[in-house]
Amino acid sequence: MQRLPVPPPPSPLCPPRIRRSWEATPTKDQDLFVQAVALAMDRGFHQLFVDIHAETLGEAHDSCVFLLWHRKFILGYENMLRSLGRRFACVTLPYFDYIQHNLNYLHGKCTSLESCSPFLTGLGGSTSGHLSSQPLAGFAFSHFKCVDAFPASHACAVPGSDCMRCIPRGAWTRTYFNSTALSFTSIKRVLFDADDGMTALSLRIERSPHDVFHFTLSAALANFVVAALDPVFYGHHATIDILAAIHHRCRVRPLKLTKEQAKLHPGNFQGCVINNTMVVKATSPVGLRLPVDGVPTSVDEYAVTRPWFQHVPLTYGDIVDTTNLGVHSYRYNLTGLLGTFYSHCDHAGMNHTANMELQANLQDYEDDDQHVVMDVTDVDSLTFLAWRYDVLVQARAQGLDDADADDEMDKMVVMVYEHCLPGTHSEYPEDFKAMWKIQGGEPSKAMLDGVLSGATPIRIQGWAGLNQRYFGCSGERIDNSIKTSRV
Questions:
Q1: Which parts of the sequence belong to the Tyrosinase copper-binding domain (predicted)?
Q2: By the 8 A CB rule, do 386 and 420 touch?
Q3: For the stretch 453-464, what's the b/e string if a residue is b when 16 or more beta carbons lie within 10 angstroms of its beta carbon?
Q4: H or E stretch including 243?
Q5: Are 42 and 260 a contacting pair, CB within 8 Å?
Q6: CB 458 within 8 A of CB 411
Q7: How far apart are CA 305 and CA 438, in angstroms?
Q8: Residue 164 and residue 142: Cα distance in Å, rounded?
């Protein structure tokens, strides 16, 4: 590996680090972020993070430290962008709010992944480019368009060589939200399962929404080895990091533990054995490595990457709280439905409006000076919350508990996606499952199959009428070959 110049340290004059959704990020800051990514590609720094993600020795995926490993990884990437020069010194990662984008899709405000997601178009979209037979890290993407819009036009897999100057991307204008795994209802069930230990949470989030996202966006993003080449990757993992932060706020922070107690609390960290050989503990260093002259080398030891991770806590137990990382502490500005998870935890989406949710949890909300939650005011979100409330009322009338109601809502949304919206649920191909070490199938497809086969029918009486009232389509299967029209 070519040894690149050591970057200057970040400026200490920045305001508190707050990550926002792409939509909530001012246009000038969006432009600054994209320019920083392009410059990082030009200097070869961006590719170093692709190498780090590919060289994990099993820690980054399918392990108890999936969430925490990626937390330090994207924090280092953000620090790298800040090191590029004075004008980039305060740049922050935007997060990809696909929960809100799913809602827009559900209400028919947009029809494809790209038309629903300003973050994707802001990073160059999927339409400008050409087919390329040039392999990437030994993998062929010849049937995908290699997008050459800015900043992908600066992509370079091997700095100093004949660069591709493009990134293989899926046909996002013809790709649909074929899975409800990226939606509010599904993510709530993942976040607030009865088993709230960190190991179980990490595995649930990795399987869904994480894996579903990579599968849906396809091309480079669906390939474990090169996924981090696409800057969309970092916005996605900022969203995954938010889910871990929400879990911390709901399950650990109310316990008011000391820092030392928090390190060992099972809601923050649970150890495991990786590859049957490596024991990972709270005191274990976060295993970020990259090949230097063919030798796996810690980012804390390599001269180029060391400044980006300087003063970032070394161990897993020390990075469990994003607001307690010293000079590298950061918060999230949470908008839309995503914010209701943080403000109301298990009871998110269980009141008639978002404002009622905030009022019901007012004391905790006012005492929380960490992450920022913005009120939900848009009509579509309020309509969605009203639908959830009416389903909940019906579920309770039938003697179902609130967890059962959440399960039934997920089934109801799956039916709307399958029978009222473009696209259809599909199973993972075997090569994708092998690369990402997935044992089961695509979760929404499995849920849909259960409903259609009668193995796990929807238990809410009058569910089709409730869907029709709020979404303009019942979701009932009338004819397998014809989508039900919205009225």
A1: 230-241
A2: no
A3: eeeeebebeebb
A4: helix 232-247
A5: no
A6: yes
A7: 31
A8: 13
pLDDT of residue 178: 85
Q: Is the peptide bond before 209 cis (omega within 30 degrees of 0)?
A: yes
Contact 126, 114 (CB under 8 A): yes
Three-class secondary structure of residue 295 per DSSP: strand
CB 269 within 8 A of CB 68: yes
HSE, side-chain direction, 13 A CA sphere, residue 112: 14
SS3 259: helix
- How many angstroms separate the CA atoms of 352 and 387, rounded? 8
| Dist. CA 417–CA 288, nearest whole Å | 39
Give the integer Cα–Cα distance in Å for 482 and 381.
28
**Which residues 6+ apart lie within 8 Å of 471 measured at CB?**
106, 107, 387, 416, 420, 486
Extract the tokens encoding 41: 């590609």
**Measured between alpha carbons, how far is 80 from 43 in angstroms, rounded to an integer?**
11
Enter the pTM of the model. 0.93
- CA–CA dist 368, 361 (Å, integer): 11
Per domain, the residue ranges of the chain are 17-324, 338-471
Q: Is the CB of residue 170 less than 8 Å from the CB of residue 218?
A: yes
pLDDT tens column, 281-318:
999 999 999 999 989 999 999 999 999 999 999 999 99
Tens digit of pLDDT for each residue in 388-444? Answer: 999 999 999 999 999 999 999 999 999 999 999 998 899 999 999 999 999 999 999
Q: Say which CATH superfamily domain 17-324 falls into.
A: Di-copper center containing domain from catechol oxidase (1.10.1280.10)
Name residue 433's amino acid. K
**By C-alpha distance, which of 382, 337, 335, 378 is closest to 95?**
335
C-beta of residue 99 within 8 angstroms of C-beta of residue 25: no
